[in-house]
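Researcher: Please generate the 3D structure of the following complex. Treat every line as part of one assembly.
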Amino acid sequence: MDATPAVRLDGVSKQYADSYAVRDVNLDIAAGQFFSLLGPSGCGKTTSLRMIGGFTDPTEGAVLLGGEDVTALPPNKRNVNTVFQSYALFDHLSIADNIAFGLKRKGVDRAEIRRRVGEMLELVQLSGQARRRPRTLSGGQRQRVALARALVNRPAVLLLDEPLAALDLKLRRQMQVELKQIQREVGITFVFVTHDQDEALTMSDRVAVMNEGRVEQCGTPEDVYEHPTSRFVASFMGTSNLMAGTYRDGAVVLDQGPALPVGQRDGMSDGTTVSMSVRPEKIWLSDFEPGMEVLRGVIRETVYSGPTTTYLIELAPGVTLSVLEQNTARARMEDRWIGGETVEFGWRPEHCLVLS
Amino acid sequence: MTLPHLSRIRRRARRANGTRIWTWFMLPGTLWMTGFLIASLLLVAVLAVGTTDSLGNPRFGFDLSSIRALTDPAYSQVLLRSLGYSVLTCVICLVVAYPVAYTIALHGGRFKNAMIAAIVVPFFANYLVRMYGWSVVLSDDGPLLKALRDIGLADSGTRILNTGAGVVAGLVYGFVVFMIIPLYAALERLDVSLIEAGRDLYGGPLRTFFFVTLPATRQGAAAGLVLVFLPAMGDFVSAQLMGGPDQIMIGNLIQDKFFQGQNWPLGSALTMMLMLVLLIGMLGYLRRTRKDEAEARR
Amino acid sequence: MTLLRTPTTGAATDAARSRTRRRRGRADRRPRLALSVTVLFFALLYLPIAVVVLFSFNTQKSLTVFDGFSLRWYRAFFHDDVLISSLGTSLRISLVAMVGSVLLGAALALGLVRCRTRLGSVAGLVMLVPLITPEIVTGVASMLLFKGLGMTLSTATVMLSEITFSISYVTVILRSRVAALNPEVEEAAMDLGATRWQAVRLVTLPALVPTVLACSVLIFALVFDDFVLAYFTTGVEPQPLSVRIYSAIRFGVQPTINAVGTLMLAGSIGLIALALFIPRLFGRRGGLDLLSGK
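Model: Done. Output below.
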């Protein structure tokens, strides 16, 4: 890893009249990474991005780009560029002029501008559209123009503010792949804001999960999904079967009654109030292996959704677990459980997450 | 430790800069408006308590004779007449504009915009020429009375011009567009499913109209009433072209005091009285809408 | 559970739908009363205009009997030096008032939207005053101010008061347009290396061009047609055309007025239609927004 991070947020806060949009955020983003800021709306992710871009001034702390303090610099003096959520294209300029805007401000000579704009149009597959107006393009095309307009300046860091939010699902999937490819091709650090955890997991090298103005957890996609360090992260990242209870000798005694075996936990004393969770896909319904904890419950609901089937299993009155099964070639439709049946299910203790 | 402190100071300077550029944008227009408009309105107020010298030239001072003169029954009669005409104009405008706006908004189809343009465009064309044409139409042997006589709705003695009806007709013709625009906007926004729900709840179209459509467009109607009342109260052309000496309005009095009579303090006092009436009307409207909004919030 | 309930729900929806269809059939029947009022309204709206236009082509002086087609009154107008010089005066006033009020009003609109200081809210209130003051009051007030400053009433004083009055219109129209602009676009320009001023000049102002043009045309037409303010603030000579028409209408009917009136109506209807049409030239819909802003 590079010694100086491309972006460093050093104790950054943004305080409005009586509330914090961002509170004491410390982040290092290494050069060349695809870094995602993930969180629900209002968690401070966009504000953080805007502070890196220079559109919002932090009330405390410093923003460093490539080791240099840029906290006091306006956006036009920072070597970062932004892809805005609304794309913010210049409607009165052609696609080519939109892309050339930044280079013209820098005073790059004409021939060079033409060459680089051409290159960019090719990269985003819009070579034939150079003379058209943004208004006449489709959503996906406008998104690509916004990307090209930012990338053509070869910024040290590219900021992307929910750039895919306005696209429909299919186009979004396609653009996710394309964005990732482009990032690998140009090797620029991407800071990507999204509220979509799937998007963050599939695209990022590292993810910072934010909530109420703070960074809850920062790590690789596997880290934050498999080993969430807080209840918020556990529940925000997919379905998590989060339950409250008390830890007692290798099991969690739920507030509603039943005790769920979770294995011995080092450094956790009996009687600690905890939250526990098991991911639905980590719960098995058959073919149990040695070392697994097996329990019984009643199927309450079966939800078929193409490649997977989700069962809601009632363990005790008021305690329901969601279980996900793959509809693989081996699984036959007739074998699916139906409501009312009592089934056995099991998990490995190490797949249980216990948070005090 | 000094670094963040320093950068904070610089940052504050930059933020101030960001606002300053917009202040500079705003300044010329604001100064202009304050210098000409606010100053001139204040001058009217000051002159209303001024006097005239022996040659009739206005003099500043503090003299309540002009204000006192307003209590003269001759003036209060004109004020009451102006109020009556204006209120009547408002009511007629509402009654006429509502079906027009309703038809266009709910049954206009793709001609909606064309129809609204067909109303708005001539209304912003020359006011005087339109009023003049209207006075020709309303004249004793003009097309309207001729047609009414032909179908027996009027006899040879029926006149519109030089009567109060003529003045009100002029005011309505002059300002009805200010009623149509807000009503149309309100009806346009009206959710058609609301009317359908009304049919479900109340049944008949008439009941639906009174219980659903009318309340939903009350704000538009209120705005329209104010927009018609303001210019109608201040108008002097209609009374001049359509009315006779017995139909003069407060606008004619003001005009007279400044041009023929040359009594500026009295003219200013009359102007202030007009403003006062309008201010009361405006405040009534604002209180009404605020109450409506409060109810809507609840 | 949900699967079981589906058929009942479907049946209920079907029933509701057919009920709605029946009802909508009734709602779609045009209300006859409202329709006839609308027809009558349009007839009465255009009748006076039609009368003026028709009798401007009359051979005789009469306003009630149409004798035959002639261009007599138009010829009379074009040979009337006083009216022609008034036309020139009116055009000059409109042009100056248009440029002045659009410059001041556009800047004011930009400032009002972007700057939320106390000065901004005061300016916002001041700007509304002309819109809620009848023209006669503004006219009287302007005249008093000019006289009080010791100025002789002239074309220049008309220009000044027309600018004052028009600023509000420009500001109201442009303000909603500026507020509708995406603030991210200006940020994008700064992000790409533009200074704040460059961002305004290169991105914000071009985005406002269609509205500013439409607004200018509208102001030109409004000022050209305005009579009350001009009447109170004009000098004796030269007088704007609308003031001349006022005197002519008041003191006896001259058929020339029909011809002038027809020309003015044609001119302002053309200009206002143009103002409504300009935004469409730039590929934007809904030119009528311009007027509903009032």
